[in-house]
Amino acid sequence: MEAARITAQGQITIPIGIRKKLNLKAGDKVIFIEERGGRVFFENPALLAFNHIQDEMHDVAKNAGFNTEQELQDFAREVRQEMWEADYADNEYKGLAYISNGN
User: Fold this and answer.
1) SS3 of 40, please?
2) What is the Cα–Cα distance from 101 to 65, expressed in whole angstroms?
3) 3-class SS at 14?
4) CB 97 within 8 A of CB 80
5) pTM score, two decimals?
6) pLDDT tens across 80-103, in order?
7) What phi and psi, each to the nearest 5 degrees, are found at residue 43?
8) What are the angstrom distances between the C-alpha of 74 and each of 4, 31, 50, 51, 79?
9) Is the pLDDT of residue 7 over 90?
10) N or C terminus of the chain with fewer C-beta within 10 Å?
């Protein structure tokens, strides 16, 4: 647990350990969230949004039948190759080949 003092202007300094944990830098915004019962906490809104999207994508991947991250990566690699071939098969890049770095 870390503590901070509120200034006369209503400002606080977020302890360095908390800033690092939330990946907060000077100028970043935070959001304050009030739970039932009056508990208030704050979050990095960008990190919160990213985590929400990541959770949603996890559910979408599971519903699509992907059971592992590797299966999803393999599928993405196949789609990228198909897109490359569709976009560049019949133009001046015909002599080039799709190169995957394994990701």
Assistant:
1) strand
2) 25
3) coil
4) no
5) 0.46
6) 888 877 777 666 655 555 565 655
7) -140, 160
8) 47, 37, 23, 23, 9
9) yes
10) N
